[in-house]
Design a protein that fits this description.
Layout (H helix, E strand, L loop, with lengths): L7 E5 L4 H13 L3 E6 L19 E5 L5 H11 L3 E4 L6 H6 L1 H23 L4 H6 L1 E7 L23 H20 L3 E6 L1 E3 L8 H10 L4 E4 L5 E6 H14 L5 E4 L4 E3 H15 L12 E4 L14 H7 L7 H14 L1 H8 L15
Parallel strand pairs: 1-2, 1-4, 2-3, 4-5, 5-6, 6-10, 7-9, 8-12
Antiparallel strand pairs: 9-11
């Protein structure tokens, strides 16, 4: 897809955290026409895209990716040359409490979208069909867990260990199967933990910021020794656009930030940033609010991504270190507490999820 600027691109899940960053990057660095396809679940909110809502190259469709008839109408109307598929349920804790929603969206939603793409490609001539690109955005959690050493590569075996990871692994397999069986030109990317502005406040870094600012106990699962590789969301968005433009059809690309941290060290770093920018009224550190709570069931010990392929083949490098990205993130949340209030609404107040209590 070498001339993506000349075309229409569908972004599913564009009102979410990573999807909105992708939309901002596409509008900033290309001339594409964009259609954001989002059903606006709890984690999708149009407040996240208020700055581009009236952009001349941006259109929004309030559509569920499980609605094949609605998808077919969108394909017929806009004639896209690419789909960037980011719509997904993504919170591991929620998948433990309610796995059904993850199967519905991540598996059946991906299946329905692939079927709509398949039908659409049948209406195109051979050149346009060959130039089409389906970019499926996935996670490193499909690979399972690592010990103290090693990294995930594109050839690592799939060993998902949570309902969320299993649903994403299934969707990856569907994309590969539809590419092989029906000839859909596809690429897959698997990323490490994202962080940055506009992340829904249930995720670790914004959750810590919110708890700290309200002077509440900051929960750390288990001993806090679990390790994640952290990737600043704007670096990820640039990587996804590069994959869309230059990635080889049938290829998988791992995207990581080369920033491994234990969960405890991440929480402590957030507290340190807040100490510097908005000190507590009592003069104590926000780190004094840290408390250790029972671990998540089946908590994967460590993830680490080898990004050599995207770096060597496509020339991508992360621009942010973990600390530079974290400083930007903390300051953004301090400046945008109105956004946090707007997206949280009445349904979530920072309560503990992921103990497997709901059926």
């Amino acid at each position: 897809m070498n001339k993506v600027e000349d075309h229409c691109v569908f972004v599913t899940g564009g009102a979410g955290f990573i999807g909105s960053a992708v939309i901002r990057e596409l509008l900033r660095s290309t001339e594409v026409q964009l259609v954001n396809i989002d059903s606006l679940t709890y984690a999708g909110n149009l407040e996240t895209l208020s700055e581009v809502a009236h952009h001349g190259r941006y259109d929004f469709s309030h559509t569920d990716i499980r609605d094949q008839e609605a998808l077919q109408e969108l394909f017929a109307k806009h004639q896209p040359s690419a789909v960037m598929h980011l719509a997904a349920e993504s919170h591991v804790d929620r998948s433990i409490d309610g796995p059904g929603a993850f199967l519905e969206t991540n598996v059946m939603g991906t299946y329905t979208l692939l079927q709509a793409v398949r039908g659409y490609l049948d209406t195109l001539n051979s050149v346009r069909s060959t130039d089409f690109r389906f970019h499926h955005v996935s996670t490193d959690e499909v690979y399972g867990a690592l010990g103290l050493e090693g990294v995930f590569t594109e050839s690592s075996p799939y060993q998902p260990r949570s309902p969320y990871a299993a649903s994403k692994a299934a969707s990856d397999h569907l994309v590969r199967a539809w590419a092989e069986t029906y000839g859909i030109p596809s690429v897959i990317s698997n990323c490490s933990n994202n962080y940055g502005p506009y992340q829904y406040p249930e995720k670790l870094i914004p959750m810590v910021i919110g708890k700290a600012l309200h002077d509440e106990s900051i929960p750390v699962y288990g001993s806090g020794s679990n390790v994640r590789d952290w990737l600043y969301v704007d670096d990820h968005a640039r990587a996804l656009l590069l994959i869309l433009k230059k990635g080889l059809s049938g290829r998988t690309y791992n995207v990581g930030g080369a920033a491994e941290r234990t969960n405890l060290s991440v929480v402590q770093a957030v507290c340190h940033c807040l100490d510097q920018r908005q000190p507590r009224k009592n003069g104590n550190s926000y780190a004094d609010l840290i408390s250790f709570v029972p671990d998540r069931p089946g908590h994967d010990f460590r993830y680490a991504i080898d990004s050599a392929r995207i770096q060597n083949e496509l020339g991508w490098q992360p621009r942010e270190t973990f600390l530079s990205g974290l400083e930007k993130t903390v300051q953004w949340y301090l400046d945008h507490q109105d956004w946090v209030t707007a997206v949280l609404g009445p349904q979530y107040h920072g309560q503990r999820l992921g103990l497997g209590g709901a059926v």
